Amino acid sequence: MKNVVITGLGFITSIGNDYQSVKDSLINLKNGIEVYPPFAPDNIPVKCVGTVKDFDTSSTDQEDWVYPDAYRVRRDVIRGFAPHCLYAYCAMKQAIADANLTEEEISNVDTGMYTASAGSTMMLYEGMKKLDASSVSRANPFGIVSSIAGTLSFNLVSAFKIKGSSCGFVSACASSSHALGYAFDEIALGRQKRIFVVGGEDGDYRTLLPFAGMRALSTNPDPETASRPFDKNRNGFVGCGGSVVMVVEDEETALARGAKIYARIRGWGQASDGYNVAIPHPQGDGVVNAVSKAFESAKVSPDEVDYINAHATSTPIGDKAELKAIKKLFGENAKTAISSTKAITGHGLSLAGVMEAAFCAMAIKENFTPGSAHITELEEEAQSLNILTETKMVAPKIAISMSSGFGGANTAIVFEKVD
Predict the structure, then answer these.
(1) Burial of residue 132 (number of CB atoms within 10 Å: 0-12, 13-18, 19+)
(2) Helices (H), ranges, 238-376
(3) Which residues are identified as catalytic?
(4) Which residue among 2, 176, 274, 343 is the one 20 to 30 A from 63 at the CA level?
(5) Do 326 and 381 touch, CB atoms closer than 8 A?
(6) How far apart (Å, rounded) are the C-alpha atoms in residues 192 and 380?
(7) Model-level pTM greater than 0.85?
(8) Which three-class secondary structure state does DSSP give residue 228?
(9) Tens digits of per-residue pLDDT, 360-414?
(10) Interatomic CA distance for residues 269 and 413, integer angstroms
(11) Nearest residue to 233 (alpha-carbon basis) of 80, 135, 396, 379
């Protein structure tokens, strides 16, 4: 088995559109959540979203989108994009530069791409509306490739001439964690030397509002307290959009080309609740099994883990179940540092796993452990645990990122500091 490392990161997120701004936000717990104008009508009970700044992708015509000039996309390329494809294209450019990859290293049979998104509800809705209102001959020929769940793979694999393995993952909020886990496997087994792991979500009106129908979104109108994982008074999650791209490589290949290394991926695990289509197992059984498998894969014990980046979305049921799982795994009074970065980013859905994995890699490299913002009164289940309410300027040597999705899909990925 080969060692697997992270050599490049790219960010278009609610807390920053480049490495330095994301780092600053994580260290200082700067909030990326805002009041979202499309949610202004009185009949919409939710008001806050983790917004992507400096982009306007509200038009259904991609040529009308506003985004930074540094990422100018050719017309023939952008015509197949969903909004989150544009975010991912920009994050991909950053990750390539960060990893110092050449065109030859990007486009060859040893370099692949694994993606995760839910597709674009906006593009699908508008496309179907136009199809119903007019003849098939007037339908958008790019309507399918710009909307369905594989849109990230379709567009980025072609735009960046990826020739290795490529696949899209769809397991709701565990999607991009699954993508990263399987990328680890592919490289560890020697099947690929390098894989881009890409997560993205539109994070707009049509993506997020349906969650209000599930009573899953926070109705708190204050951006400074709407997302507050582990807080006793939390009442739902705040959605966000954007994209994060991670370059994952065989360590031998990375060292041979002189690449900088953020962290080593030690292993991962996954397990299902087998319980309910939308509600997590109340005792966190699936989380326990996923993390236990991650420990086995990574050959680490609970007392070696310095930091847990919890899934913790800020829902009353979800946070409590995860806390119960953590206690079963680490002990009732475990001193392992725990936080949820969703307090400042919002919940990225399919994007969440790779985004939070990237935060772990950055924290390991930059010598800090991010805190959990907006907590005024801890949930009772959390009071015996080491929930960080501010950032500590010390690097975790071993960190674990946990994600969970609909149907009880649970993942856990273990990262290690490289000396």
Answers:
(1) exposed
(2) 251-256, 285-298, 316-330, 342-345, 352-366
(3) 173, 311, 347
(4) 176
(5) no
(6) 46
(7) yes
(8) coil
(9) 999 999 999 999 999 999 999 999 999 999 999 999 999 999 999 999 999 999 9
(10) 7
(11) 379
